[in-house]
Design goal:
Strands 1-3-4-5-2-7-10-9-8-6 form a 10-stranded antiparallel sheet. Strand 3 and strand 4 form a beta hairpin. The protein is built from 7 helices and 10 strands. It starts with 13 loop residues before the first strand and ends with a strand. By secondary structure, the chain is an alpha+beta fold.
Length: 299
């Protein structure tokens, strides 16, 4: 792998707006790819074309992800998208939704690099901040940030950039939701999301299979939390904080969503692959996403 170094000068770089559109079918396919089922009465409003429910909130977050992957952003960050596919990952993140997403519409993403840091193991962290505005109805839909993780592209000389640290309960979870992970999971998410990164379709050295999309798994956890805390109303989602993605998840590996009720409108969560279902030979449960805080609002 060629040596690359993230430039501290990326801080403050702001990029041209990115616009995207969505309709009911894209919102429905995202809900389906995240585990919603037509025979579950809590999910049905997200699945039917004549429903008046809001669009799936992950549509807005996915728009920010697509803005992150644009040629302009990746060229400034690491010399292009091909280089990102070799060394890039996304780690922790945060998004706050100002209101429910329209069922169909158009939005504009504004984005910038706001911080950079390095690790003792020679990796780089870059904070990608974004805001998503409604082009049709006006006003803010969402805002937040992601930490972009670049393998072997930094050092402690870049300074410190601390990801969020959410204290997880030591008690047993209040709810456990079991999921299968079908072989075509990566295709089912790429189709509505537009994320065709080859890491989700090619088996790379050291991996037993391609990687399941992190945003798909986040949507899975959000839908589980919505059923338990918000009567299935994913549109009540107001805020997500994600601490880390400590281990890769592969198609065919089942998952468990562990949920802790912190209050009527707040949950903590973790997504785990049970030891018996691992494809990588590990002998213990594997945490795929950790330190998730989910907040709901409205009625």
């Amino acid at each position: 792998m060629p040596e690359r170094q993230v430039d501290r000068g990326v801080v403050g770089a702001r990029f041209s707006p990115y616009e995207f559109t969505w309709d009911w079918s894209r919102s429905q396919m995202i809900a389906r790819a995240a585990g919603c089922a037509i025979d579950d009465p809590r999910d049905r409003p997200l699945m039917l074309p004549d429903s008046t429910s809001a669009g799936h909130p992950m549509v807005a977050f996915n728009g920010a992800l697509l803005a992150r992957n644009r040629d302009e952003v990746m060229e400034r960050l690491i010399g292009g998208y091909a280089a990102w596919q070799e060394v890039g990952r996304w780690g922790s993140g945060h998004v706050r939704f100002a209101r429910p997403l329209p069922r169909a519409g158009a939005a504009r993403v504004g984005c910038a690099f706001t911080e950079v840091g390095g690790t003792s193991k020679g990796h780089a962290l870059v904070r990608f901040a974004f805001e998503v505005d409604d082009l049709a109805g006006g006003g803010r839909l969402a805002e937040g940030w992601m930490l972009l993780f670049l393998l072997g592209c930094g050092s402690e000389a870049l300074g410190k950039l601390a990801p969020p640290r959410i204290a997880m309960p030591e008690r047993a979870p209040d709810v456990v939701v079991e999921h299968d992970t079908p072989p075509n999971t990566t295709f089912d998410w790429a189709l509505p999301s537009g994320d065709w990164n080859t890491t989700h379709f090619e088996t790379r050295p050291g991996n037993p299979a391609p990687l399941v999309h992190g945003p798909r798994n986040m949507a899975l956890v959000l839908n589980d939390a919505a059923r338990e805390l918000a009567g299935g109303q994913v549109a009540r989602l107001r805020e997500i904080t994600l601490g880390s993605l400590p281990a890769p998840h592969y198609p065919g590996e089942p998952t468990r969503t562990l949920l802790w009720r912190e209050s009527a409108d707040t949950a903590l969560a973790r997504l785990v692959v049970p030891a018996g279902g691992r494809r990588d030979g590990g002998g213990a449960d594997k945490v795929a996403i950790d330190q998730i805080e989910i907040r709901f609002g409205g009625t």
